[in-house]
Write a structure and sequence with these properties.
By secondary structure, the protein is mainly beta. The strands form seven sheets. An eight-stranded mixed sheet has the order 22-23-24-25-1-30-29-28. The chain has a four-stranded antiparallel sheet with strand order 2-3-4-5, with no helix packed on it. It has a four-stranded antiparallel sheet with strand order 6-7-8-9, with no helix packed on it. Strand 11 and strand 12 form a beta hairpin. It is globular and about 60 Å long.
Amino acid sequence: MKIPLRKRYHLELGQSLNTPVATPDKGWLINFDEGPEVVRLDAKLNELWRKDLQAQNEEYVRCRLSVSPNNRLMALAARESVRITDGMGNPLYVFPHAPWYSFCGTEGYFSEDSRYLWFVTPTTQEEDDLLHVMDTATFRVLGRISINNRYCAYHFHQTPQTGKVLIEAAAGQDECILYVAQLIDGRIELEELTTCEDRVMSSFSASGKEFVTAPHGDGVIKVYSFPVVREIAALDQEQIFRAVDEDSDVEEDMLDYLVKYLTDDFIISNTRYGRLLLIDRRSMQLAGELAPEGYQLKGYDKNGKYTDDPARIISYEGDISDFFPTSLGEILIVHGGGFLAVYDNSEVLKMR
């Protein structure tokens, strides 16, 4: 079943984007693969300001942005430093560090009360990377600890428990390790979630009682309870694509690395072909396929050439690189070539 998503707003930026960051005022903060600018957008994708903050990627290391919950600070985690600015991008502090290896890196994570900034740095020796917690008022590092990894890209996720942060350490296609960390009396406590071995962290449910993880090679979406972490649900991609492509001659699609809650009742997963699949959380069965207005997959024949002849198509390709359900009943979708669009998801919300 195709479920239409009506386009509300769109913006063509003309160059490839890094991952957009949601801001506390329902807007977005973006930077680019190659350009040095940072752009602040409102919820309707209107440009509020644009500044050259030297926020481009370097040597295949992404410059990752973050915004404090009080909207007063930003962090730019780049190849050789973590920079802190005020909410308008004016520089406040620079924390230099050894350069990250290609495809590695960190992002900054501001605590719920905006008092602390978490980030990871590499070392110059054959040692593990270091996890830091910084006081955002004084820029003093309050604690640091070895995170027992090297050659990783680190991502931070706010948890429903105040003071606790979930950290994902992704080593490309080799492995993905999840940790829970907290700062207690100036000391970092770090716990590896061995229950979630080699899982890609995605998002928490709105209720905060569970989180969903994407497959990292095994083709299975898994849901875990929280704060006591144990597997409570799973869905194998073979089951999904039997329902989607049962009568098709097209090569079988595969789940990709993005799986996110739309609501407590529904999960969205993207696929290698660029489809957005809607999964019923209660039954863990396919509920339909989201159809953003104006979006079409491109078909390819056995020689890898584009074709619109259904009889010759053996695979597809889309241009959706990321998506972000919002609290406004909408979904922001990042398309190729720097095209952003906000879609209404009211048709999905009617299903419950």
